[in-house]
Specification:
The protein is of the alpha+beta class. 29% of the residues lie in helices and 32% in strands. Helix 5 crosses helix 7. The radius of gyration is 17 Å and the shape is globular. Bound molecules: coenzyme A.
């Protein structure tokens, strides 16, 4: 097993994805940046040779942290999903637009996101497109997020939820969709517009994030996708997924 650090810094959960006539699985890993030193000390046992060379070549501390924790989260999620040990032969390499490509495991994909305080990744079957995005709910960032909202998006959301969380939810929903589409945010934001946003009262499949405030919504121009959002403390995590897929434990 790849897991080398304490339970408080790391969460890994595997969950069901039910569709009309099929069921598959995905896995989520969330790692606190507090675990960086311990993971860094073990980096040679976690990273593939190509990843290790890339990691050693990074000069910026924040990028070193995000790279290592993002790769580690991806591999923990892959390990949880595949049910087998993920060896150093497995690599998560960047595609030409920066999108993560899994090498050394057939049929699985990952999506990665990181902030100053955490890194997270989801692993999923490559035929079932998904993506993840996370942000810190700091005042600076959320005011920037608010500026990018469309007029219609400003009117969305249940009354009880703080506006700042709504803005971050819509932002992360757009970033997650841009990762599914592989375009990133190089495309006008309005294309990813959110059409509906509601409190999520469905059974929470991600038990480790149980105490969170939860939201869900759909996109204006991409009706084949929807998103689910978890907000806890100063972090927000959004997963974009096919609209008709139901997540459960
Ligand atoms: C993709 C993007 C939205 C990520 O958002 P972010 O807030 O900067 O960063 P996050 O921490 O949430 O996500 C970063 C992860 O997204 C993934 N990612 C990067 N580009 C991606 C893409 N085009 N599609 C899907 N996933 C992508 C990577 O796994 C990356 O982590 P890693 O570099 O450690 O592997 C943003 O980087 C972007 O818009 N990129 C555009 C890239 C592009 O098109 N470049 C080519 C022209 S120069």
């Amino acid at each position: 097993m790849l897991k080398i650090i304490g339970e408080s810094c790391i969460k890994v959960v595997r969950f069901n994805m039910q569709r009309t006539d099929t069921r598959s699985y995905a896995a989520l890993a969330v790692i606190s940046t507090e675990a960086f030193a311990e993971i860094d000390a073990n980096c040679a046992t976690i990273l593939h040779k190509v990843e290790l060379d890339c990691y050693k070549g990074l000069r910026c501390n924040s990028r070193r942290t995000s790279y290592l924790l993002g790769r580690y989260a991806a591999k923990l999620a892959l390990e949880s999903l595949s049910g087998d040990s993920v060896s150093r032969e497995v690599a998560v390499l960047p595609g030409i637009f920066g999108q993560p490509i899994v090498r050394g495991l057939t049929g699985l994909s990952v999506s990665i996101s990181h902030t100053e305080t955490l890194a997270c990744a989801i692993a999923f079957p490559e035929e079932h497109l998904m993506a993840i995005d996370t942000e810190n709910l700091s005042a600076n960032k959320t005011s920037l997020m608010a500026e990018e909202l469309t007029e219609a998006e400003r009117k969305l959301g249940p009354e009880l939820i703080q506006k700042v969380n709504l803005h971050a939810c819509i932002w992360t929903a757009k970033e997650a969709l841009s990762k599914i589409l592989r375009t990133g945010m190089m495309t006008p934001f309005s294309l990813y517009a959110v059409e509906t946003l509601d409190q999520d009262t469905d059974k929470n499949p991600i038990v480790e994030l149980e105490s969170c405030e939860r939201l869900k919504g759909q996109y204006l121009h991409f009706s084949q996708y929807r998103f689910q959002t978890w907000i806890r403390d100063d972090s927000i995590i959004t997963i974009a997924l096919p609209r008709r897929t139901i997540l459960s434990c």
